[in-house]
Each structure stands twice: as structure tokens, then as C-alpha cells.
Specification:
Layout lengths: L7 E9 H8 L5 E4 L7 E7 L1 H6 L3 H5 L7 H18 L1 E16 L4 H4 L8 H7 L7 E18 L10 E9 L4 E2 L3 H17 L5 E2 L1
Parallel strand pairs: 1-3
Antiparallel strand pairs: 1-6, 2-5, 3-4, 4-5, 4-8, 5-7
Helix pairs in contact: 1-4
Length: 205
């Protein structure tokens, strides 16, 4: 079971505000990347560029998410965009702890796992364009910081598109998991059982 073991966190990853919102609500407890995680714990920095680019084209925006998640995704995108454009700030409310990493060579695994994430399969397929290379599923446990950390939004000057380093280490004292041990354990079992049925061997982080 993934547990918080660092008292301070400074490094983070950037992801869509809609995805960070889903992680923070316990709707999703995994990330999918072309690469394995570099850190066992990381801050979750919400971005909105995907939303700003597509907000005038709702059909294209809708293609990113499964139908039942689109409204929540839209609300999270609007909120993050407004905070950044009107107030020039970004709220960091969560961090994640890596529990298990699975190297996936057969993309059909994600069809079986569709109930466990908010993206549409068409978007995921487009994102993982290098089909000859394995992708990586990160099973993570999300924690809520005692209070959001507000940082200045730097726009295109904000450094890396995928990673983030805070100006100073953020204390995790008083943080709480968004899912109980029982809830996370149940989802973990369901996800890993689905993966193992498809002959994919997960490894513990």
C-alpha cells in the first residue's frame, strides 16, 4: 500500500487540471505515461492549455474525455484557466505517491481499464503515438495538502511542460489521502487483477 513517507516535497509533475481534479476526488487513481516515474512522490501541478486551445471547439474538447466525465473536466479546466488568466496564480492542492508501475506493451490493456480513468480511448491512443514502444501505467495514491499552495502563473515562461519544481520544499504534515485504505485497496485489486488477466506483470515501486 502506498503511504506518505516524505515530510517535504519540492518536485512535481504537470497534468491537465481535469485529471488532477479527478485524482483529487478519487475518481481516478492512475496515470499513463510513455515513461516510468522518476520520483516516488510528487506534487500535482494543474495545467489548462489543453482547455484554452479547445474551448472554442467543444467537439474537439469532448474527444479528450469519456462522456460521463466531460462536464467535470470542463468545470475544472475553466476554474484553472480563470485562476491563471485573471489572478495569475496556480493552486497546488495535492501530491501523489507511486504504489505500482506497470510496463504495458499491449495497448488493448487500456480498453479493459477504461472504467478506471477519465480520458477517452481515442485520446489515449493519440497520446501514446509511439506504438512500438511500451507505455507505463502509474498506480498512485493521491493526498490532499492541508491547504493549497498558491504559486505565480508564469505562462509560457513556466519552464518544463511536464515537470515542476517548487521554489522551496512543501511540508506534507497534516496531509490526508483522498481515498481510505479500504477504498484504495479495492481499486488497486481491481486494476491489478484486470492487468494480470491480460498477462502483464506489474512491479512494485
Amino acid at each position: 500500500m502506498a503511504t506518505q513517507n516524505q515530510k517535504y516535497i519540492q518536485l512535481g509533475i504537470k497534468d491537465w487540471a481535469s485529471v488532477v481534479d479527478a485524482l483529487g476526488k478519487g475518481v481516478q487513481t492512475l496515470l499513463i505515461r510513455p515513461y516510468p516515474p522518476k520520483n516516488s512522490q510528487f506534487l500535482l501541478y494543474p495545467t489548462f492549455s489543453y482547455f484554452a486551445a479547445k474551448q472554442t471547439k467543444p467537439v474537439e474538447f469532448d474527444q479528450y474525455f469519456e462522456a460521463k466525465h466531460r462536464e467535470a473536466a470542463r468545470i475544472a479546466g475553466i476554474h484553472a484557466m480563470n485562476r491563471a488568466q485573471q489572478n495569475a496564480i496556480v493552486d497546488i492542492s495535492y501530491f501523489a505517491v507511486v504504489d505500482t508501475v506497470v510496463e504495458v506493451t499491449d495497448k488493448s490493456v487500456y480498453e479493459a481499464l477504461q472504467p478506471f480513468f477519465v480520458w477517452s480511448l481515442s485520446h489515449l491512443s493519440e497520446y501514446l503515438t509511439e506504438t512500438d514502444k511500451p507505455s507505463h501505467l502509474w498506480l498512485i495514491r493521491t493526498y490532499r495538502l492541508p491547504k493549497p499552495t498558491t504559486v505565480v502563473f508564469e505562462g509560457k515562461r513556466g519552464g518544463s511542460l511536464t515537470t515542476y519544481k517548487h521554489a522551496y520544499p512543501i511540508s506534507t504534515l497534516g496531509s490526508s489521502p483522498v481515498l481510505t485504505n479500504s477504498q484504495f485497496g479495492k481499486l488497486k485489486t481491481q486494476i491489478l487483477s484486470t492487468i494480470e488477466r491480460m498477462n502483464v506483470v506489474p512491479r512494485q515501486s
